[in-house]
Write a structure and sequence with these properties.
- The protein is an alpha/beta fold.
- It has a single domain, classed as 3-Layer(aba) Sandwich (Rossmann fold), CATH 3.40.50.
- The protein is about 40% helix and about 20% strand.
- A 5-stranded parallel sheet has the order 2-1-3-4-5, with helices on both faces.
- The chain is globular, with a radius of gyration of 13 Å.
- The protein starts with a strand and ends in a 7-residue tail after the last helix.
């Protein structure tokens, strides 16, 4: 099955590595460099899953999550969050407040990200 994945990160090398791996697996990938751009792409065409960084210019990942959860049409969009500050954010709090399915600390393996996306969208339990 082909999924629509939206990747949002202001670090271009991270975006490109993840985009390459996910496209190679046969999925459709769109990329955004900040939360405002991601929001516009989501409004144009709803992805099956959003992978977003936490710290970005204009609109950060938490601001994007707040916006998503405030709107009925985006409230249930599955989200994975990337962060270089993996130990400063609480995965449990993000799951409870924003329904973030997994917090992935940078640096990460593009293979791990692809496997996590696949598990989530295939309805399997995400391993923490």
């Amino acid at each position: 099955m082909t999924y629509r994945v939206l990747l949002c990160d202001d670090e271009i090398p991270i975006l490109r590595a993840a985009e390459f791996k996910i496209k190679k697996a046969g999925h459709e990938v769109r990329v955004a460099s900040d939360g405002e751009e991601a929001w516009e792409l989501i409004r144009e065409r709803m992805p099956d899953i959003l992978v977003t960084d936490c710290q970005m210019p204009r609109l950060d990942g938490l601001g994007l999550l707040r916006r998503l959860r405030e709107h009925d049409e985006t409230r249930h969009l599955p989200v994975l969050m990337l962060t270089a500050k993996g130990f400063e954010l609480s995965a449990a709090e993000l799951a409870e407040r924003y329904n973030v399915l997994e917090l992935i600390a940078k640096p990460f393996s593009p293979r791990y990200l692809l496997d996590t996306i696949t598990r989530v969208l295939d309805g399997q339990t995400v391993e923490t």
